[in-house]
Amino acid sequence: MVLINDLVYYTTHPQELLAIIQWKIWYQPTHARDSSKASSGLKECWRFLRLSSRSFETVIRELPPELVTPVCIFYLILRSLDTIEDDMTIHPSEKEHLLRQFHTHISDPLWSYTGNSPTMLDRPLLLNFPYISREYNKLKPEHQRIIASITAQMGAGMAEIAASLDSGITTNPSYELYCHYVAGLVGTGLTSLFTAASLAPSSLHSHPTWTESTAQFLQQTNIIRDVRADHDDGRSFWPEQVWRKHVDAFEDLFLPQHRDEAVRCGQEMVLLALGRAEEALRYMALLEEGDEAVLRFVAIPQCMAFATLEACSGNREVFAGKVKISRGVACRVMMDVRAEMEGVCGVFGSYAKRIREWNERSDPCDGIEEVCRGVERTAGAIVEEMKVKRAGAQGRCNEVRRGKGRYMYYRTLGMLAMAGVITAYFARDVF
């Protein structure tokens, strides 16, 4: 049945089918990894990563060799921490203690945690945490310091807001603060790992809000997409400041008779996420000055998030079940990202335009048109900046070539003149 549905879908979406075929034929990893040389413990960590998130496992594997293991371990540690925070069955006082003390356990090869609910997807990470700890202890001291610092800050932040999550997030600033603790700090840690390896410009540290926006854009999009699943699990991350404008109780958003109100509420959440997009673009434009694999590692999830945000925009299905982009759309986005920053800007600009045009046709949400046009302008401006920069670099190369050409020309003339003088000197006795 799934095959038949796919056949019908791609018959009416031939461009997506073409993108899948192109990806299958032309995709080549930026950095090849020989997993046979990995230790048994590291192989287990990669297995856990694949079980936790196949999509992140794919992009992490493409990182340069000096980053691939630190980022893998960093992800697993923070995912383990997040699994404790997500588990609603853990007693609040125990959860707070675990969150605040978690960073003290990451180097302990004997520590593990068995108190998660059996229904938690990533429970195996905590049951088998010694595998992660042992690989963490093999990392460079600088990488360990970065990971430990971010883990400590994230755990403390999660503990601080854990109590408020029981009753829901009330204000937009509280929502942004939550996203900072669970995502913004991840962005800070990754940026530090990139620059420590000299694979991204150190000037990234001069733009902390760009780093924050890049991480928050991803997190806020996921919160919009997962609203129904979170509600079914007894959790709510949408701020009351937003949903209270449209319904009397948060659960009303999921009732069929309130679908119009739910869509308008969803558009306000989309607006909050879109407010992060321009700075995310600026962050990635600066990343282009470093390693291309690092740029793609960041850009692929960002572009997937924008495609997901567009799919959620104005979509009633968000409140009925999880909205996912098709495999064809995902492949097309990844093909665009492989065209480097121009492709990233193309993805951001095109999806911003789609959201803006839908908003204009339907019940408009104040602010969406303005912020979307801002994203489109920034995307266009970055493309022009890249063209100027590359034209300048090409001009310098041409100037060097011309300089070398003039040098060779005059050198040849000089050699010919010298040869003439020598020939005339020795020829005087002949004639």
UniProtKB/TrEMBL annotation:
<protein>
    <recommendedName>
        <fullName>Squalene synthase</fullName>
        <ecNumber>2.5.1.21</ecNumber>
    </recommendedName>
</protein>
<keyword id="KW-0753">Steroid metabolism</keyword>
<dbReference type="GO" id="GO:0045338">
    <property type="term" value="P:farnesyl diphosphate metabolic process"/>
</dbReference>
<keyword id="KW-0472">Membrane</keyword>
<comment type="function">
    <text>Catalyzes the condensation of 2 farnesyl pyrophosphate (FPP) moieties to form squalene.</text>
</comment>
<keyword id="KW-0812">Transmembrane</keyword>
<dbReference type="Pfam" id="PF00494">
    <property type="entry name" value="SQS_PSY"/>
</dbReference>
<dbReference type="GO" id="GO:0006696">
    <property type="term" value="P:ergosterol biosynthetic process"/>
</dbReference>
<dbReference type="GO" id="GO:0051996">
    <property type="term" value="F:squalene synthase [NAD(P)H] activity"/>
</dbReference>
<feature type="transmembrane region" description="Helical">
    <location>
        <begin position="408"/>
        <end position="427"/>
    </location>
</feature>
<keyword id="KW-1207">Sterol metabolism</keyword>
<dbReference type="GO" id="GO:0055056">
    <property type="term" value="F:D-glucose transmembrane transporter activity"/>
</dbReference>
<comment type="pathway">
    <text>Terpene metabolism; lanosterol biosynthesis; lanosterol from farnesyl diphosphate: step 1/3.</text>
</comment>
<dbReference type="InterPro" id="IPR033904">
    <property type="entry name" value="Trans_IPPS_HH"/>
</dbReference>
<dbReference type="InterPro" id="IPR019845">
    <property type="entry name" value="Squalene/phytoene_synthase_CS"/>
</dbReference>
<dbReference type="InterPro" id="IPR006449">
    <property type="entry name" value="Squal_synth-like"/>
</dbReference>
<dbReference type="InterPro" id="IPR008949">
    <property type="entry name" value="Isoprenoid_synthase_dom_sf"/>
</dbReference>
<keyword id="KW-0511">Multifunctional enzyme</keyword>
<dbReference type="GO" id="GO:0005789">
    <property type="term" value="C:endoplasmic reticulum membrane"/>
</dbReference>
<dbReference type="InterPro" id="IPR044844">
    <property type="entry name" value="Trans_IPPS_euk-type"/>
</dbReference>
<keyword id="KW-0808">Transferase</keyword>
<dbReference type="InterPro" id="IPR002060">
    <property type="entry name" value="Squ/phyt_synthse"/>
</dbReference>
<comment type="similarity">
    <text>Belongs to the phytoene/squalene synthase family.</text>
</comment>
<keyword id="KW-0444">Lipid biosynthesis</keyword>
<keyword id="KW-0756">Sterol biosynthesis</keyword>
<keyword id="KW-1133">Transmembrane helix</keyword>
<keyword id="KW-0752">Steroid biosynthesis</keyword>
<keyword id="KW-0443">Lipid metabolism</keyword>
